[in-house]
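Hi C.,

You asked whether I'd gotten around to modeling the 168-residue construct. I have! Everything is below, sequence then structure, no commentary in between.
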Amino acid sequence: MSITMHTASVPRFAHTLRSLALILSKAENHALARKIDPAALLGARLFPDMFALTRQVQIACDTAKGAAARLAGEEVPKHEDTEQSFSELQQRIAKVIAFMESLPADRINGSEERSIKLTLRGEEVTFSGMQYLTGFALPNFYFHVVTAYDILRHNGVELGKRDFLGKV
């Protein structure tokens, strides 16, 4: 049995976003229990030249919805980057999951050779669907999710590998 483009994308993105939502819930509970201003965690970063937690979550969401849309040949939905609370980040994650799961699998399947054009740092790059998914979208997505995890873990939120992996 071979893996389809849909199976390799939407369920993986959705599963990991659900794990990220649970991680954010733990972070919010951590802040409340320790009387930490949630904004301190939302604005935390691993290093001064890296994005803060909120931006990491936004980029993970954008990467997932963008990949699903592009592979399906659909317009990528625009979400303003205005989230300032854990609740608003949870809402964004839920919107992205709902969007991705609304895309018919047959629109994504067969997209291995679909031409995907992106502008990256001012340069237009063209990928095949398979190159885009496996060489760009999935690695970029996991980079930002794991960075969000690392920011929270570094700031004392009690997280482990099972939180990141979610229920398998």
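If it helps when you're writing up: The CA atoms of residues 66 and 150 lie 24 Å apart.

Thanks,
B.
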